[in-house]
Hints:
The structure is a homodimer. Chain A is α+β, with helices and mostly antiparallel strands. Chain A folds into four domains: about 200 residues, Heat Shock Protein 90 (2-Layer Sandwich), CATH 3.30.565; about 70 residues, Helicase, Ruva Protein, domain 3; about 140 residues, Ribosomal Protein S5, domain 2, CATH 3.30.230; about 80 residues, no CATH class. The first copy, chain A, is about 40% helix and about 20% strand. The first copy, chain A, has 15 helices and 18 strands. In chain A, the strands form three sheets. In chain A, strands 7-6-5-8-3-2-9-10 form an eight-stranded mixed sheet. In chain A, helix 8 packs across helix 9. The longest helix of chain A has about 55 residues. The first copy, chain A, is globular. Chain A starts with 6 loop residues before the first helix and ends with a helix.
Amino acid sequence: MGDExxxxxxxxxxxxxxVVEFFKKNRQMLGFAGKVRSLTTIVHEYTTNSxxxxxxxxxxxxxxxxxxxxxxxxxxxxIQDNGPGIPxxxxxxAMGMMLAGTKFHRYMQQRGQQGIxxxxxxxxxxxxxxxxxxMRSGLxxxxxxxxxxxxxxxxxxxxxSNQVEYLGNFRGLRIEAEFADVNYDKSEHGVYExxxxxxxxxxxxxxxLIEPTGEKHVxxxxxxxxxxxxxxxxxxxxxxxxxxxxxxxxxxxxxKLSSFLCNTFSRMSSAKADELAKLVPTVNFDKNxxxxxxxxxxxxxxxxxxxxxxxxxxxALRPIGPDQIEKALRNxxxxxxxxxxxxxxxxxxxxxxxxxxxxxxxxxNAGRTNSEGERSGDITRYANRVPLMFDGxxxxxxxxxxNIDWKRYDIREFDKEPVTxxxxxxxxxxxxxxxxxxxxxxxxxxxxxxxxAIMKVARDMQVYLRGKIREMDKETKKKIIMRYxxxxxxDLSDLAGDSTPQEIEKKLVEMVETKYExxxxxxxxxxxxxxxxxxxxxxxxxxxxxx
Amino acid sequence: MGDExxxxxxxxxxxxxxVVEFFKKNRQMLGFAGKVRSLTTIVHEYTTNSxxxxxxxxxxxxxxxxxxxxxxxxxxxxIQDNGPGIPxxxxxxAMGMMLAGTKFHRYMQQRGQQGIxxxxxxxxxxxxxxxxxxMRSGLxxxxxxxxxxxxxxxxxxxxxSNQVEYLGNFRGLRIEAEFADVNYDKSEHGVYExxxxxxxxxxxxxxxLIEPTGEKHVxxxxxxxxxxxxxxxxxxxxxxxxxxxxxxxxxxxxxKLSSFLCNTFSRMSSAKADELAKLVPTVNFDKNxxxxxxxxxxxxxxxxxxxxxxxxxxxALRPIGPDQIEKALRNxxxxxxxxxxxxxxxxxxxxxxxxxxxxxxxxxNAGRTNSEGERSGDITRYANRVPLMFDGxxxxxxxxxxNIDWKRYDIREFDKEPVTxxxxxxxxxxxxxxxxxxxxxxxxxxxxxxxxAIMKVARDMQVYLRGKIREMDKETKKKIIMRYxxxxxxDLSDLAGDSTPQEIEKKLVEMVETKYExxxxxxxxxxxxxxxxxxxxxxxxxxxxxx
Lengths: 547, 547
């Protein structure tokens, strides 16, 4: 044991470090891994911030992204929006400090939620090129503010230089930053694809991309309807943990536990609070919430789970909407068939409201071309309208697609059919698996809900596919009948005497066509064919009589 | 535009928050998602800390884990090791503060590296049960320290209470904590499986588990050899980014750029530094490193990439070793066939040294039973001997297995064969995709290296499988020959007269058996069979003569 090292010896190395140092060393956790992915992450962070800001400010977004290759091998990214801008007083902390922002603590639906992304880009520029990020912000009040920004890695504080303020009409945010270790390409994980998918889920946004070649792509605004502003909501009783309840109770201004519960939680009427009080007689509901003990809070949380609750209010959730999804899918994939389903809002972890929109597209350009050049099933994942481009393997949406027995929907192998499954997870809190925000955690209630939404549209697709087969069957039958039409009309013409066979043939063809235009190929239809034949027969007789 | 909200209005909501608040809201990022996974994460964080501490202190680890279901639905986890302990002065920050520790800033191979895990467990206990974590630490100096610990969520500082110090012989760390929202089960993602896999990759550790049922499992120490202590290494020139070079240069005590380079980086001889100086004539290598500009550093980093370098020193990497891996796989899977490969150390991102150990096991209990009850290929992933149990879909090891064309190795479908692929990624810095540390980022050079290691053992397996087929062919031939042995011996006996047919049959069987015992089924062998037949024939004649 002579070789053993003492614990005190080891702990001489003990150090504290900042969250910036942490992410500097673990940059892949912010999505900065791989040259193509890193560039997509940069554009993703900036555009989600722009879209969120416009949505909150009630502005129809116009976003321009420009990517340039510089002679020294660096890549310059410029992004400009027409959003509300960031006040100069907050710009530093918004873009040059991690764990700070307007979104983290608010219980409302937004694309960003972590207060890391923007500052992460500033950090990534600085650690790969040593350069600051140039910012321009205008609130639309006739003044424009510009500055250079870096992050102090040790203290997690913004370092601002070259500030200027001048008069001008610019409203919005413009960011100009240089990066090394990134690469522009048009692969399925690149910036072009990312913006295309963003446009699909945000038809109210006008997005322009200028590629390093100078080529310009405009993803046109398809809808002038400004999405409803996101609203903050009260937490639902079923979503609350004991820890949260204690925390909120100790911070509240309410004087009585019962009124605190009613004021704080959605769907908590005074009748419900009374019901709850009866279930936990050991807790005095008149007590000051600041004195709520852990064991009391735990008893309340357990009692909450035994009661029935109205689902959380749906008005805080902002789905894309079935019409917009269908329009986008038809527009981009030109499929034979599309079906969209929108599930009712549900809760996960007991009480975080969420809802799932799913769609399926079949045929046309649906699906993707796999590495062997064959058509293969594709999964298009979104969370709050943000395309999820990476880490699909560990995402709840992928898991849901995998858990479906596709044979039951007449899809022999998902990987071998021209089918695109689209799913958008909508929530005030998206439980991402990592800070890179590319995959939704595979919790059972989430996976199940996504699965149900997809199963609904898969059933619609199955009806379509079966109809198509029936249609093909009918088509075959029609061809057989048609084959006899000519012969029949000759015979009829013979019988009729003065009638030309061409006219009779035309009439017969018309009748058959009319019959097969209708989608339903039922027994009733078959009867009508019989009727039609009888009519022809009658006509025959009429003509005979005239003879 | 009357409905638009002003930027100043929105930024009234701007707030800063602590890293603890961040992980409290995003607990899934620490691996606390799902009841089974959360419990595995807890045991994982505690045991990796114990194994690291023992390794650094040169102690053969003995770790005891106990999981108990409490009457109130909580789960109690107790873990005790015989490690070096944590000095009372540091215990608070080690287990009650995030982003602090002995590992983050040191360039050496360890299981933990982030300084979040232990404090993450303290936080998870506190937010699910409101209770503190009980700690006992002894450095082996006759004194024992105990305390209760929580984290102050707002300030990321430890909250310590009920401290006692007393005399005693305890050396090591003992942690007792209660959790809600966790569940013990024996699934492939549970604690039992996690500890079994840990034991596989750490044969020097003795690990005991007591399940909630009271059942006790001992994973016996299989090797008394204490692994070599991890050592800190100098960074390799190829791994350095411009940002790192500027940072280190500005902090160094060296007075000249040239000596700074030689003192700081591995494989940087003064001859190499001279070579470098010639490549970047614009930079004065006699200048004070504190004055190194970004553009100069960038020029040096670019020049470094054009030179040839000796690979980083391998002595800092601590692989498990082929013998230990083979022993472990044979022990746990009882396979027909095992092959282990250990690749030479390589670098990723230009200069972080890493190496890959891979193994393949075929037959026996290799592979896994899939949901349809069929035998299926299995991937056992490790990073620095730590089993990776979750998020396999986005891991470099899984990616490497997927990228292999298994048909080339006579495996028609990986998912349908009794085969286990084992891979251990060994590095001073494991690039995990997330804070949950369950998947290695899929960077090309990493995936490729893992793939090569697996392809090597796959080739060995192919040789084995082909041999087996040849063996089966031979077996078939042997059976055919044997079918005629009886008949032949009767005939020979008839011809020989005094010889009993049993004796002749015995001789013939012996001859055939001897021939087929040999593994090589070559043309030479076939000739020997012919020879053997001739001998029999000769014997026949001899006997005839005697007649």
